[in-house]
């Protein structure tokens, strides 16, 4: 959740020269006709898609993501085990053909728990990302487009939130509302975690959006639209947003990954989700006391966590490369 | 294309022979969408003390040729696939990186269109000039500074001493272009390549810069390659002109011959399509269509789809650049007819 | 046909130069346009020439009402457009349209050509009923010489000249009376430039358009203009018919400008009387007192520093010229080229 990434992703794709490699000019002239041969016209996003399709990195990470999403949506497709209830007699039974990942301290099926754990992690991450993108994006557009004192005010507010250390901030928020002794339901806790992640992360997306809007709003085509008599709404929705969205899209994908990690961290610290909810973070937290004797208890949820985080980060990277006109 | 001899400025004394020769140069750009044949056998040369203008529209390959000469072609996507660039008879493309580096600046220097991005914004203009004397000539700090101020003075920057410690953004466009000229001439190069040196400048400043370049060239007896799309500028300063189209030279001639009677329909079309200050109101005679896609250059003469004179032969056979008359060459099947018409 | 469609009176546009982020302090004014008056007649082309920083692009923005003037008026058929807002302003926009310089940046890369040219109809829905829009767009494409089949393509699939045609089609969509062309051909190659200029002329004849044609290329301006105004550092220094400005210029700046234009004819190299101006254009933040051109003028006298020369018809000039010493001077090059 640090800002530096922002700089590298802000590659507003304003009306770039025809997408060409290298020094541009020499091959420009010829381009139009080369494109005429393609029957289907494609936009810049279409170009990005063509580019993505050729990347193995994209396909691998996308496959993993689909797998995790399926897990989150239909865990019963993957396992018939019971994630919540166990038999103490099977406590810490090692992996076998019967239970691939073994049993945990309370005799619950680790495989089933790992599968069911995907849901909490992914729901939290996806919803927090959406919240962050919506709030940050909207604030960024307002600040960037209006400018002046609105911009100054919003930017200072964002700075204050940005100044809060992420882990400390969420500990403060969550111990206040979700500390020991509170009795929140599963969805309430999820909501709280999502809120704390969103509240502490929106300034990054706002900055991203704001710089992207600032770079785009002076573009000639915006002036041209104003000259036609287009209103503010049309300019923002039709001209500004589509051209500013790419960096946000990339950042959002990466953010899902890092939020999965953040959710696990908070659960591990005991202030995020709590049993009986199943999540990878809780599993890791429970496994920490048995690392020496039953390392597999830690290994399987961690492996899934790392795989999920990596898939999203790599997908984001692939999308960024495809959208960045400079790399073409 | 070896029969193409040198239509020298006046054919008389050539003091140092062929200074810089480009011989059948071929460059292609390998991009995601395919291979663009940017330069397809370009041959030209420049002698000491003469100005060769390379004229062409965007995409004609005029700047890529210059970048290849300077060894600053972006690789990838650009790859030299054939030909030679000879400086004093030695092929530069076969030289080591170190040897080429030594030629840059002292042998061949280049000035660019966009002086703001060509100068480093974090160093003063004076420092950037002085640095060359220190690194390449091993001068002391004080001597280098003195030489740098002399250079600024030579390019007629008023108050050169005071301007020495200014940063590029403190200069106006014209002044910056002068500073860049000072920088490229610092090591006394034998050939100066000027790539659209005045395109970004206003008319009155453009005139000043062209005057300055011409003066410095005469003083130093440099060979100059002026790359431009502006037929007006060319008419003012060039000795010879090479017209490029789709990565080829389509016509090369003495400046007077070329304007009086173009020997290639493309040149003729270009001359016809510029609005002139003395002809008001008539419709401009344009060249129809667009330049070809360099990934898919039409067979035969690359100009044939746009050419008003095109015949079946033009779609089949690529016309080589051949001598027409005494001091000119044209790559058109009907060059003789063009030259001999009234 | 002598009706004034646009009248500009003492137009001033200053941009404040500020320092500080939270507490902004105005430390000066960029005097981009500083007292400009002219009129545009129905069906004519008024060329505006000048070098960078002379205020011609600011003039275009104020004419388009993209910026409010600091002072002065822009009258469209007697109505002050800078006072309009809301619906009235939107209705006015139908009458005055803009063609911009850079065909690469003036089209939204995420919209298809059909959406781009159709956008004016969406903003002004009463101009064309929804059902007829697509065919209107196709008509427009055809009109500017593009293939109507290409309606679903994106701008990056077109070359510079074709994109400029798209920009022109967009400006034409609402059938305006005036089109402000801000350097419409400067970014194009010579052979393409000629095609676009011919198109502009054809459209003018067909629709009776009036153009304000802003450019730095003097030969392009002469080719298209009926009357020409020359700007220097925010002021208009000379205005007259194309013939008066190009054949009998009386302001020293115009003379210098004209003589500096390279003529594509090598035989004129040696007998051209070129006036070489020294130095650069001063900063518009603190322009010289009196006549703004005096710092580069070879005729400058004491009076030039003290008194601002008005743009008026003077002894020695048959058309308005803002020089205390206006007089004719042969510009050799423009005549004998042929």
TrEMBL record, chain A:
It is found in: Cell membrane. Its main location: membrane. Residues 1-40 are annotated as: Disordered. InterPro entries: BP-dependent_transpt_permease, MetI-like, MetI-like_sf, OppC_N. Pfam families: BPD_transp_1, OppC_N. CDD domains: TM_PBP2. Gene3D superfamilies: MetI-like. The keyword Repeat does not apply. It is a multi-pass membrane protein. Keywords: Cell membrane, Membrane, Transmembrane, Transmembrane helix, Transport. The chain crosses the membrane at residues 57-78, 122-145, 157-177, 189-209, 296-315. Residues 118-316 form the ABC transmembrane type-1 domain. It comes from the Bacteria. Belongs to the binding-protein-dependent transport system permease family. This is ABC transporter permease. It comes from Micromonospora solifontis.
Automatic annotation (TrEMBL), chain B:
Keywords: ATP-binding, Cell membrane, Membrane, Nucleotide-binding, Transport. It holds the Pfam family oligo_HPY. CDD domains: ABC_NikE_OppD_transporters. It comes from the Bacteria. InterPro entries: AAA+_ATPase, ABC_Ni/Peptide_Import, ABC_transporter-like_ATP-bd, ABC_transporter-like_CS, Oligopep_ABC_C, P-loop_NTPase. Its main location: membrane. Residues 20-271 form the ABC transporter domain. Belongs to the ABC transporter superfamily. This is ABC transporter ATP-binding protein. The lineage of its organism: Bacteria, Bacillati, Actinomycetota, Actinomycetes, Micromonosporales.
TrEMBL record, chain C:
This is Dipeptide ABC transporter ATP-binding protein. Keywords: ATP-binding, Nucleotide-binding, Transport. Residues 6-258 form the ABC transporter domain. One of its GO terms (molecular function) is ATP binding. NCBIfam families: oligo_HPY, PRK11308.1. The keyword Nucleotide-binding applies. The keyword Ribonucleoprotein does not apply. InterPro entries: AAA+_ATPase, ABC_transp_ATP-bind, ABC_transporter-like_ATP-bd, ABC_transporter-like_CS, Oligopep_ABC_C, P-loop_NTPase. It comes from the Bacteria. Belongs to the ABC transporter superfamily. It holds the Pfam family oligo_HPY.
């Amino acid at each position: 959740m640090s800002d530096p990434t922002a700089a590298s992703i802000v590659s507003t794709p304003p009306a770039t020269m025809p997408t060409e490699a290298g020094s541009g000019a020499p091959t420009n002239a010829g381009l139009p006709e080369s494109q005429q041969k393609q029957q289907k016209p494609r936009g810049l996003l279409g170009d990005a898609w063509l580019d993505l399709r050729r990347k193995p990195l994209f396909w691998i990470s996308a496959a993993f993501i689909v797998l995790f999403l399926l897990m989150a949506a239909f865990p019963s497709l993957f396992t018939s085990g019971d994630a919540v209830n166990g038999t103490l007699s099977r406590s810490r039974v090692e992996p076998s053909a019967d239970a691939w990942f073994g049993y945990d301290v309370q005799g619950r099926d680790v495989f089933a728990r790992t599968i069911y754990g995907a849901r909490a992690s992914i729901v939290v991450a996806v919803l927090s990302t959406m919240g962050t993108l919506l709030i940050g994006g909207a604030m960024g557009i307002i600040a960037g487009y209006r400018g002046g004192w609105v911009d100054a005010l919003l930017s200072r507010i964002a700075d204050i939130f940005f100044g809060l250390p992420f882990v400390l901030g969420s500990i403060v928020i969550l111990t206040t509302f979700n500390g020991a002794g509170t009795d929140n339901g599963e969805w309430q806790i999820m909501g709280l975690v999502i809120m704390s992640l969103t509240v502490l992360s929106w300034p990054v997306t706002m900055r991203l959006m704001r710089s992207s809007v600032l770079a785009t709003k002076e573009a000639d085509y915006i002036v041209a639209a104003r000259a036609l008599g287009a209103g503010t709404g049309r300019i923002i929705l039709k001209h500004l947003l589509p051209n500013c969205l790419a960096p946000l899209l990339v950042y959002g994908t990466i953010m899902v990954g890092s939020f999965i990690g953040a959710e696990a961290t908070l659960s591990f610290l005991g202030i995020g989700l709590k049993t009986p909810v199943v999540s990878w973070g809780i599993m890791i937290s429970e496994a920490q006391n048995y690392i020496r004797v039953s390392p597999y208890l830690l290994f399987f949820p961690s492996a899934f966590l790392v795989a999920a985080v990596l898939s999203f980060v790599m997908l984001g990277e692939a999308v960024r490369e495809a959208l960045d006109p400079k790399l073409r | 294309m070896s029969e193409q001899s040198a239509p020298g400025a006046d054919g008389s004394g050539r003091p140092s022979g062929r200074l810089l020769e480009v011989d059948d140069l071929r460059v292609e750009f390998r991009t995601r969408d395919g291979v663009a044949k940017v330069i397809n056998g370009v041959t030209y040369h420049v002698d000491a003390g003469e100005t060769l203008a390379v004229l062409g529209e965007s995409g004609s390959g005029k700047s890529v040729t210059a970048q290849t000469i300077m060894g600053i072609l972006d690789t990838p996507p650009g790859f030299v696939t054939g030909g030679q660039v000879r400086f004093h008879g030695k092929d530069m493309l076969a030289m080591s990186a170190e040897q080429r580096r030594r030629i840059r600046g002292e042998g061949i220097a280049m000035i660019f269109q966009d002086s703001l991005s060509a100068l480093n914004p974090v160093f003063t203009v004076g420092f950037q000039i002085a640095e060359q004397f220190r690194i390449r000539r091993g001068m002391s700090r004080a001597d280098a500074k003195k030489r740098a101020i002399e250079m600024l003075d030579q390019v007629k920057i008023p108050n050169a001493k005071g301007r020495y410690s200014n940063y590029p953004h403190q200069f106006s466009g014209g002044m910056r272009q002068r500073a860049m000229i000072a920088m490229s001439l610092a090591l006394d190069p034998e050939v100066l390549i000027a790539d659209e040196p005045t395109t970004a400048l206003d008319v009155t400043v453009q005139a000043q810069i062209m005057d300055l370049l011409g003066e410095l060239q005469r003083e130093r007896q440099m060979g100059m390659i002026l790359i431009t799309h502006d037929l007006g500028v060319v008419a003012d300063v060039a000795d010879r002109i090479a017209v490029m189209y789709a990565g080829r030279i389509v016509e090369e001639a003495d400046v007077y011959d070329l304007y009086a009677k173009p020997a290639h329909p493309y040149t003729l079309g270009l001359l016809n399509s510029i609005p002139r200050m003395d002809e008001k109101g008539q419709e401009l005679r344009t060249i129809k269509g667009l330049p070809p896609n360099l990934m898919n250059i039409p067979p035969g003469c690359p100009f044939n789809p746009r050419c008003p004179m095109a015949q079946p032969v033009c779609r089949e056979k690529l016309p080589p650049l051949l001598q027409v008359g005494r001091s000119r060459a044209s790559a058109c099947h009907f060059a003789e007819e063009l030259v001999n018409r009234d | 046909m002598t009706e004034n469609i646009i009248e500009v009176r003492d137009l001033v546009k200053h941009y404040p130069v500020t320092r500080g982020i939270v507490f902004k302090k105005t430390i000066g004014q960029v005097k981009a346009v500083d007292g400009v008056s002219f009129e545009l007649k129905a069906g004519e082309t008024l060329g505006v020439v000048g070098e960078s920083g002379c205020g011609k692009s600011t003039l275009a923005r104020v004419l388009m009402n993209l910026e409010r003037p600091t002072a002065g008026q822009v009258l469209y058929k007697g109505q002050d457009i800078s006072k309009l807002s809301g619906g009235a302003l939107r209705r006015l926009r139908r009458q005055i349209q803009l063609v911009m310089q850079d065909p690469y940046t003036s089209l939204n890369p995420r919209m298809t050509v059909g959406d781009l040219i159709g956008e004016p109809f969406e903003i002004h829905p009463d101009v064309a009923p929804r059902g007829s829009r697509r065919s209107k767009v196709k008509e427009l494409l055809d009109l500017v010489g593009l293939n109507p089949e290409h309606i679903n393509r994106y701008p990056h699939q077109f070359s510079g000249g074709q994109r400029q045609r798209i920009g022109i089609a967009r400006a034409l969509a609402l059938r305006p009376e005036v089109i402000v062309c801000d350097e419409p051909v400067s970014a194009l190659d010579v052979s393409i430039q000629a095609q676009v200029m011919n198109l502009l002329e054809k459209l003018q004849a067909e629709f009776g358009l009036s153009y304000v044609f802003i450019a730095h290329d003097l030969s392009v301006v002469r080719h298209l203009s009926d009357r020409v105004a020359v700007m220097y550092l925010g002021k208009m220094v000379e205005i007259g018919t194309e013939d008066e400005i190009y054949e009998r210029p009386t302001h020293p700046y115009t003379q210098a400008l004209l003589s500096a234009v390279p003529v594509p004819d090598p035989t004129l190299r040696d007998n051209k009387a070129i006036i070489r101006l020294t130095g650069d254009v001063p900063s518009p933040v603190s322009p010289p007192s009196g006549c703004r051109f005096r710092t580069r003028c070879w005729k400058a006298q004491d009076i030039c520093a003290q008194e601002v020369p008005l743009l008026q018809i003077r002894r020695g000039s048959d058309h308005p010229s803002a020089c205390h010493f206006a007089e004719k001077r042969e510009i050799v090059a423009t005549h004998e080229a042929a």
